[in-house]
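Quick start: what a row looks like.
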Amino acid sequence: MSFAESLDRHRRRHAIPASVPTIPLPAYAPAPLAPLPAARKRAFMAHLRAELDEAFGPARPRPRRAAGATPSAPPSAGAFIAAACATCRGACCANGGEHAYFDADAIRRQREARPELTRAALEASYAAALEGERHAGSCVFHGAAGCVLPREMRGNLCNSFLCSELQRGLDRAGAGPALLVAATEQTIRRVRLHRGA
């Protein structure tokens, strides 16, 4: 069965009208879940300590790093973005490795929101978050249900990045319903109907 035939069959089976746009998305093919190896934990903690050194070090004028080179989405797009990312399941997360897109600016952002945060408290929070099963080879925080970190602990890029497929989907679907399709060139992996605002 071709990609188009498979999609058409899905629309008929679930009575999804042709007027609902199809939004193609990346399809992360999850690697097996396993406890995070000690070497990956050590690598992230070394990265974290270097970023903590910078964030807690003496203030010095410097340009802030860009949070991401993507346009920001309107607040009303939150449900669409969450549905699209859940359908993909983490193609962008797969490149997070042991750095998790995390830097000193993310620490500064957390400290601005919660000035009482100490270096030791931040280090302990991230060390605790490394426990549990993760997708092998993906970001150290990429668990079975997505990122295990609450939004406020994620890197700035993780909170702002919109892949090109997601950006095009937002432009096309607006606030209305959309058929979200995570697929490779030949295979539909997951389909989700976003009902709109």
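That is the whole record. The chain has seven helices and seven strands. Helices lie at 3-13, 38-56, 78-88, 104-113, 119-129, 156-160, 164-173.
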